Amino acid sequence: MKKEPPYAVASVDNALRLIHMLRDEGELRLTDAADALGIGRSTAHRLLSMLVYRDFARRDETRRTYLPGAALTAGPLPGQTRNQELRRLLMPHLERLCHQVEESVNLMVRVGTHTRFLVTVEAQHVLHVGDRQGTVLPAHHSSGGKALLAELPDSHLAELYRSGPEPVLAQAEFDRLTRDVAQIRRCGHALNLEATEAGICAIGRVVRAKDGDAVAAVTISAPTVRFPARRIETWAKVLAESTARAGRDLPSGLG
Predict the structure, then answer these.
(1) What pLDDT does residue 195 have?
(2) What are the phi and psi torsion angles at 224 (to 5°)?
(3) What is the C-alpha separation between 229 and 233, in angstroms, rounded?
(4) 213 closest CA partner among 254, 155, 156, 153
(5) What are the chain's domains?
(6) Looking at residue 77, what DSSP letter applies?
(7) Which positions ≥6 away from 200 have C-beta within 8 Å?
(8) What angle do CA 92, 98, 99 make, to 5 degrees?
(9) What confidence tens digit (pLDDT) does each residue in 136-160 have?
(10) Which DSSP helix (H) or strand (E) runs through 120?
(11) DSSP string spanning 9-73?
C-alpha cells in the first residue's frame, strides 16, 4: 500500500508530476504545466529548467514547448494519440460524474498487468483523493484495472499472470483474482477496498466504444470514511449510467 510521505516536499512532487506529464503527453507548454500544477509560470519555468539540465526534458525553441529528454528512455508511450483522444472526449463526462457524486473521478487504461491513470477530476472536499494522473498501479489491485481484466478471456488472464518461469502472481493470488473477475463479470463493476493505498477505496467500471470494445475504465475514489457499504449500490448505478453516456461519444476503433 502506498502512503504519502509524512513530510512531502512540494517542489519534488511537482517536478515528478512534470515528468509524468512529459511521459504521457509528449509535449508540454509552460502555461499548461503551470496550470496543471496550480503554480506560477516562473516557478514552473524553474522546475522545467532543472529537468532540462538533468536530461529529463528538452526545449523546442521553435515551438516554445518542452519535450521528453534522453533520461526518459522513450518519447510518448505507444497509444498516446488514442489516450489524448480519450481524455478529450470523456472529460465532460468525468466532470459531470464528479459533480454528481462529489468525489474524485479517474480515467485509466490497462497496459499489460498495470493500469495508468490518464486524468483525475478532483472533488472539492478538504479531505479528498488527490490527482493521480500518470500514476501506474497493478491492474489486479485497482478497481479500474480489475474491471478491464474482467474483459479478457480466462486463457489470456492465465497467460498474463501465470506463464513463464517466474509468474507475476502466485497461484493463490491468481485464484483470488479469478474469483474477483467472475464477480465483476456478474455485477459489472469492480471494487478496490484499500488494496493500493491505506484509507482510500474505489469503484470502477469499463467504458465501451460504439463497437462494444472496452477502451478504458472510469473510477470513483473516496476516503474510506466516505465509502460505506450502503453507498456502493448507489454509486454502481450512477457509474453505469455515466459510462453508458460516455460510450456513446466514443467512435469505433479505439480498442
Answers:
(1) 94
(2) -55, -35
(3) 8
(4) 254
(5) 10-68 (1.10.10.10), 80-247 (3.30.450.40)
(6) P
(7) 129, 192, 194, 221, 222, 223, 224
(8) 90
(9) 889 999 999 999 999 999 999 999 9
(10) strand 114-121
(11) -HHHHHHHHHHHHHHHHS-B-HHHHHHHHT--HHHHHHHHHHHHHTTSEEEETTTTEEEE-TTSS
**For the whole model, what pTM was predicted?**
0.72
- The total number of residues shown for the chain amounts to 255
pLDDT surpasses 70 at 80: no
Q: Is the pLDDT of residue 63 over 50?
A: yes
Q: Model confidence over 122-141: pLDDT tens digits?
A: 999 999 998 888 888 899 99
- Phi, psi at 216, each rounded to 5°: -165, 180
Neighbours of 9 (CB within 10 A): 10
Sign of the dihedral through C-alpha 212, 141, 190, 118: negative
Helix ranges (DSSP H) in the chain: 10-25, 30-37, 41-53, 80-101, 143-149, 154-162, 171-187, 229-247
pLDDT digit string, tens, across residues 211-223: 999 999 999 999 9
Q: Which amino acid is at 187?
A: C
Return the SS3 of 159.
helix
CA distance 14 to 62: 25
Strands of the sheet with 114-121, listed across from one edge:
136-138, 114-121, 104-111, 214-223, 200-208, 190-193
